[in-house]
Amino acid sequence: MKHEQLQEEAERFIKACYDELSKPASETVSRLEQIRTSIAERGTYEHTAEELQHGARMAWRNSNRCIGRLFWETLYLMDARSAETEDEIAEHLFRHIEYATNGGRIRPVITIFRESSGLDSRIRIWNHQLIRYAGYVTGDGIVGDPASVELTKRCLEMGWRGKGTAFDVLPLLLQIGNRPPQLFPVPDRLVLEVPIVHPELADFGTLNLKWYAVPIISDMRLEIGGLHYSAAPFNGWYMGTEIGARNLADENRYNRLPVVADFMGLDRTRESSLWRDKALVELNAAVLHSFKERGVSIVDHHTAAQQFIRFEERENKLGREVTGRWSWLIPPVSPAVTPVFHRSYQDKVITPNFFSQDGKLPDPAACCPNQPSGIGKTSVF
Ligand code: ARG
To answer: Residue 265, by phi and psi: left (phi above 0), alpha (psi -120 to 50) or beta?
Structure first.
């Protein structure tokens, strides 16, 4: 029964993939035959590097919440399916960070670890992103990113110690199957960051805001042709509003609009002064300016929206329907002045795609009673 479903999904994917890659029909037929045999004999099959790369690109193309999909065909695959140990996995992740960062000229990259049919061999990266800031609960509130409080707690329990600033990069928390999870601090030299300054407002830098250059989502499951890749971190570059209108601005994130408004001398006693809106716009201008000045790839939301429309047009021309989730596609700043706001999208999920997976952190005590801390070391970095 399960085999039949896998067989079906595999067939559907191979046909679409080989068709898009303009393979001759004979090649598709023989590949399908090979897969049928493999599933019959071993209950599973393996993707070729080419299938994996194109499948991952299709998954990006099908990501309903992503406005940056025009560039789906440029996604670069780092095939890490041979990685077996936690150390090897960490080394691949460090290489991903370095290659994707590329000194600021960010390259869209995905690293794919081995497929996980059985839970006992499942590779999990417990971090939401490979680079993200810790959030500490202290006597006077949260220091750092409130979104990271739970993971930070777990890392501290496992023996990790951060500097205690608002911008401490969390270590990687890696786990294979039911083995004890292990921590791997990300080497400083791999983490490119951008201090936030403003093109006109002198001393904006005294607000001590910064953000990291590359968002590398690492907790989603990639599904291609019925196979599940539980560890397949991927990145593009930032759209400015993600940082300026959400990460630094949301009340349940860094909540910095009040300090930006005070720095600008705005009247916060009345909502109708629109201090929030004014602070938001200048903070977003600062983020875009700072990244550009440092030579780090970033896109503003107007350009990104136009690129998305081009993506839609291109897809339609090729006879493919573009699915999307409108509430995610519209930018959080000035949505109605982008064309995306005035269109509608069907939020239909098609595969290949990325899926969220159970986010419950492993309990280190339950996993390894006699191993208080598992801070790993890797040789290469
Ligand atoms: N919104 C997330 C963040 O601010 C990143 C999501 C992926 N974004 C991207 N541009 N690829 O960190």
So the answer is: left
Residue whose C-alpha is closest to residue 376's, from 181, 157, 223, 108? 181
pTM beyond 0.90, yes or no:
yes
Q: What digits encode the pLDDT tens for the residues 315-324? A: 999 999 999 9
Distance of CA 222 to the CA centre of its chain: 12
pLDDT score recorded for residue 364: 65
**Total residue length of the chain:** 381
Distance CA 214, CA 104 (A): 9
Spatial contact of 134 and 168, defined as CB atoms under 8 Å apart: yes
105 is a catalytic site residue? no
Closest atom of ligand 1 relative to the 238 alpha carbon: 10
Convert the pLDDT of each residue in 205-258 to its tens digit. Answer: 999 999 999 999 999 999 999 999 999 999 999 999 999 999 999 999 999 999
Cβ atoms within 10 Å, residue 232: 26
Do 152 and 161 form a contact (C-beta atoms < 8 A)?
no
Spatial CA neighbour of 329 closest among 58, 57, 70: 70
CB of residue 217 inside a 6 A radius of ligand 1: yes
